[in-house]
Amino acid sequence: MALDGIVISNIVSELKETILDGRINKIQQPEKDEIILVIKNNKNTYKLLLSAQASLPLIYLTDESKTNPMTAPNFCMLLRKHINNGKIVDIIQPNFERIIEFHITHHNELGDLCTKRLIIEIMGRHSNIIFCDKDTVLDSIKHISQNVSSVREVLPGREYFYPPNQNKTNPLDIVSLENFKEILNKENMPVLKAIFTSLTGISPQVATELCFRACVDDTKASSSLTNDEITSLYSAFIEVFSIINSNTYKPIIYYNNEIPEDFSSIPLKSLGSFETTEFDSVSELLQNFYSTKSVVTRIKQKSSDIRKVIQNALERSYKKYDLQLKQLKDTEKRDKFKIYGEIILANAYGISEGQKELEAFNYYTNENIIIPLDETLTPPQNAKKYYDRYNKLKRTYDALQDQLEETKKEFTHLESINNALDIADKEDDLLYIRKELVDYGYIKKKHKDKKTNNIPSKPIHYISSDGFHIYVGKNNFQNDELSLKFANGDDWWFHTKDIPGSHVIVKSKGEDLPDKTFEEAAAAAAYYSKAKNSTKVAVDYTQKKHLKKPNGSKPGFVIYHTNYSMYVDPSIKGLTEVND
Fold this sequence. Notes:
Blueprint: H1 5-18, E1 23-31, E2 34-41, E3 44-51, E4 58-62, H2 74-83, E5 87-92, E6 99-107, E7 113-121, E8 128-133, E9 136-140, H3 177-184, H4 191-198, H5 204-214, H6 227-245, E10 252-256, E11 259-264, E12 275-278, H7 282-302, H8 304-330, H9 334-346, E13 357-362, E14 367-372, H10 379-423, H11 427-439, E15 460-463, E16 469-472, H12 476-486, E17 492-496, E18 504-506, H13 515-527, E19 537-543, E20 564-568, E21 576-577
Subunit structure: Associates with stalled 50S ribosomal subunits. Binds to RqcP.
Family: Belongs to the NEMF family.
Keywords: Coiled coil, Protein biosynthesis, RNA-binding, rRNA-binding, tRNA-binding
């Protein structure tokens, strides 16, 4: 999610309230495309992070510390020379663009008061941090030569000017309905695109929000909008920008199945079905959103090779299973050949030499049937031919029953590993998943593989609304540990019925569990399963004393013959997570 003009305006507003008129106490450059300014103002100390990382450009106040290189990079040294102990006298957002400009005063070597500009441009792979003396570039964290951009060079000594705005209009300059209508009708295109390509700082998400509030189809051509639709859009536009003009931002993160999906500095009614968390500070929102996102992204990147191994193995297993089912279907005619052989022998006396077929009474169905014969064979030989085909298909049928069972166990095991991968939230979790894949031959063992024995592997720990401790296994090794060693005989065990998922244990403390705790534990078992995105999932539950693990069975596999079942919606609502 890129920062749009509205979020940038929220950041500028927050920075004006916190660091405006503050003095820069320290300047650090922990990464090649990132700087941190330590600012003191009104007896408070703030850390301002500015990142021009191509995939994740950011600016926000942070409380995190980062390790700095032993020798400061040249850009950092230049900033220290000019603006260390400088005073931030202004913070602006030019033309509602994704740009924040700091005006910083300092005294030069002669003691004269000078003003410098520190500019961060948050524009995806074109993001940059630029240091200027008036309109002259002193240096930038990324040097942009003419070979890289023929439109605008960003090099020491060059003139600085803002990136071209592609003839967009500053939305803060729109003062009337006619003005708004004129902008929408500049080009004939879907109204959604017309909004975000005509106005600076407006993202597709905000354009979608305007159409949603106005009840206008965002795919409709802008030139075909009725006056009422344009008026509704303008009203929605005024409603949104009144939040900006009145400085009443509401930083919100939107969650999809507990995963941060989106954020905004204004309420997005178009995402009304999402769960939300409001923040007092846009910096707090950005730090929360991107730290959570970075964990998810990092785990996703580090697990990509494991996921590929699992998917390839699953595809092979599914194909094998389908082929075996097809072969099994072909064996369904085996009994027919046995009957043919019996009827041929029963009617052998009436079969003439060279006869090509036999019409006889089938005493199994009480109907006449026609049996093909090989005219070169005698009746006993024809009967033996059909018996041989029967016996061959019967052997195939018997063998396929075992093969199908083994193949089903194989892909069920792989699906359980895949489910563990979906809920992994720490790099250590991946080590246990990789170990299981190595143990079962899906990944070749390497001598340098990190041993998992000394790595703490802790299940997810919740407390139910009634105060009972609930534990969720994050991988098959944890599932075995929880269900077979950690749980006591009277503790309760939950698992989705015939669906790969985590083992869930509720510590009963020797008491009867309330109905609410049963429901919450079952809902958690559904949530941490392959059926997470389904509704009304069947969950089996029983006491630990009824569980058994067959000899030689794979990790996470148990059997039980005494159990109850209930249908629940996957959820962890009502549960309080405990960080052990």
